[in-house]
Amino acid sequence: MTEVQDRRKKTVEASMTEQVHLIMQQHLNGGGRLFGGALMQWLDEVAGVVAMRHAETYRVVTAAVDNLQFKHAIYEGEIVVLKGYVTYVGRTSMEVEIDTYVEQPDGMRHTVNRAFFVMVAVDEDQKPIQVPELIITTEAEKARNEAAKMRRDMRRQRRENGF
């Protein structure tokens, strides 16, 4: 068997992660809205958990953050839900999409942020290690995976251009 044939495979669902926060005074900036840095920390935590679950190791690092879009403000007393899942897997890296919602008292969720993180699994010497392949099971996952491939290509292009 070749190395590729030996790779484990995991579904998107297997590593999906959801984190919930009640926004309190200590989370607010001077303008009375959720401090962007607090949300960025939570996003990185969710991306890390998703990547750890997929890679089956606690050793993952954030390699890149793309397209962090703040679509709406978040205020004190609101419930914030972050939902993360793997959209693409390379040999050692994973793209993790994290959608952030404000959850209304009736349970309806409204998107307030979307972010894409590139996470890399590493060994104890911080050298990249191979991760399981991604099993795509739904049309939505297929669409996210195709979009992730386009983002991967754009990242490569930016690196080649010095970004």
This entry's quaternary arrangement is: single chain
Helicity, as a percent range: 25-40%
Which architecture does the CATH hierarchy give at level 2? Roll
Shape: globular
**CATH homology group:** Hotdog Thioesterase
Mean pLDDT: 93
Structure description:
By secondary structure, the chain is of the alpha+beta class. The chain has a single domain, classed as Thiol Ester Dehydrase, Chain A, CATH 3.10.129. It contains four helices and seven strands. It has helices at 3-6, 12-15, 36-55, 139-160, and strands spanning 9-11, 17-22, 60-70, 79-89, 93-103, 109-121, 133-135. The strands form two sheets. A five-stranded antiparallel sheet has the order 2-4-5-6-3. The radius of gyration is 17 Å and the shape is globular. Residues 1-5 have low confidence and may be disordered. Its EC number is 3.1.2.-. This is Putative acyl-CoA thioester hydrolase. Keywords: Hydrolase. Residues 13-125 form the HotDog ACOT-type domain. One of its GO terms (cellular component) is cytosol.
What can be said about this structure in brief?
The chain is an alpha+beta fold and 163 residues long. It contains four helices and seven strands, in the order H-E-H-E-H-E-E-E-E-E-H.
